[in-house]
Design goal:
The chain is α/β, with parallel strands linked by helices and about 150 residues long. The chain has a single domain (about 30-150), classed as Response regulator (Rossmann fold, 3-Layer(aba) Sandwich), CATH 3.40.50.2300. The protein is about 35% helix and about 20% strand. It contains 5 helices and 7 strands. A 7-stranded mixed β-sheet has the order 2-1-3-4-5-6-7. The protein starts with a helix and ends with a strand. About 20% of the residues are buried.
């Protein structure tokens, strides 16, 4: 009987590798963020979005690639999402590209960014600044109207 239990245990370990997909981590927050950024970028540009995220992780690449054409360099992009502590001066010029951030304080202090998506109490918050939308000649759909603030 012990031999059968040992054999059954060894057999179950040998086929266990086929079920490793069940333990693959799921990054719900990154996926939700990618979907929201996709809606914002497509509404802001009205054309194909070439996204650049500085210091992007492999997990972010995998998730964002499902929604965007990812650019390897800032110069080749038309939409830049700064979601880490990176100064935009070290990235590329601001002409012909839109800058979006995930930091509300950075949005308020740096006029390069026209909007932000940040998390507060595990909920996404979206903010656009009216004057910066006008300066970049961005017309957002009416669905984004509640997120536009006049500073």
């Amino acid at each position: 009987m012990k031999k059968y239990l040992l054999l059954l245990t060894l057999l179950s370990y040998s086929v266990a590798e086929t079920y490793t997909f069940l333990v693959k981590p799921y990054h719900k927050e990154i996926e939700l963020e990618a979907k929201i950024i996709s809606e914002i970028a497509h509404a802001s540009l009205g054309t194909e979005v070439k996204l650049f995220i500085p210091n992007i992780s492999e997990i972010e690449k995998e998730v964002y690639a499902a929604h965007f054409t990812l650019s390897q360099t800032c110069e080749a992009s038309n939409f830049v999402f700064v979601n880490k502590t990176v100064e935009h001066e070290s990235l590329c010029g601001t002409s012909n590209r839109l800058f979006f951030t995930n930091n509300y304080r950075k949005l308020l202090s740096d006029k390069t960014y026209y909007g932000a998506l940040f998390w507060n109490k595990s909920r996404p918050n979206i903010v656009f600044i009216q004057k910066r939308l006008e300066a970049n000649r961005i017309t957002l759909p009416q669905a984004f109207a509640p997120f536009v603030e006049n500073f």
